[in-house]
Amino acid sequence: MLIIDAFAFCRAGEQQAGKLTVPELTRLRAECVSDEGGIEWQLVGGSHANGYPLLNLTVTGTVQLMCQRCLTPFVFQIQSSTKIILAKDEQTADEIDASLEDDEIEVIVGSKAFDILVLIEDEALLAIPLSPKHEVCPTKEKLDAFATAKKESPFAALKDQFLIAKPVGKIKN
After folding, report:
1. What domain count does the chain have?
2. pTM, entire model
3. CB 19 within 8 A of CB 120
4. Closest-CA residue to 76 (of 123, 133, 18)
5. Helix or strand or coil: residue 66?
6. How far apart are CA 114 and CA 129, in angstroms?
7. N or C end of the chain, less CB within 10 A?
8. Rounded to an integer, what distance in angstroms lies between the CA atom of residue 61 and that of residue 79?
9. What 3-state class would DSSP assign to 165?
């Protein structure tokens, strides 16, 4: 846990930075295929043009993800930067969010016991795609062969099990 008084941090224009390994971030670790990699982060306090407390968070690093196309691990670069306005409660957060014209700024509830580790991990998780893939899979030949392989219809196996009666003649009324 990395606890700060978020409002005092912003008022004082403080800065913190650090490095975290994948095993230190349990929710991020659950998305990865190995413990390799880690992230570096930087948090800078300040104030928004409208006077709201503002945190600037930058998260960069690498993690090992599973390619959803070829099912092999690959290194994914996390690179994210976000601006976060702090509000005293949910109602104030909603009011600030509605008044902002910038959709790039997040509004959350801050506190005097604010765990920035959760914020850092959230940002890293948001940077990971829902369906991670290589830009070009290393086993593209295997994928191409699979895609062009002739697939037998599931009904083909049934055709030999049932005899289809052919009409012998016309039915009279």
Report:
1. 1
2. 0.75
3. no
4. 133
5. strand
6. 27
7. C
8. 7
9. coil
In a domain, 94, yes or no: yes
Closest C-alpha among 2, 5, 3 to residue 110? 5
Domain enclosing residue 16, as ranges? 3-138
Report yes or no on 158 lying in a domain. no
- Quote the tokens at residue 77: 């670069």
Place of tokens 């702090």: 86
d(CA 49, CA 96): 13
E strand or H helix that includes residue 90? helix 90-99
Decide if 119 is inside a domain: yes
In a domain, 86, yes or no: yes
pLDDT digits 0-9 by tens, 44-103: 999 998 899 999 999 999 999 999 888 899 999 999 999 999 999 999 999 999 888 878
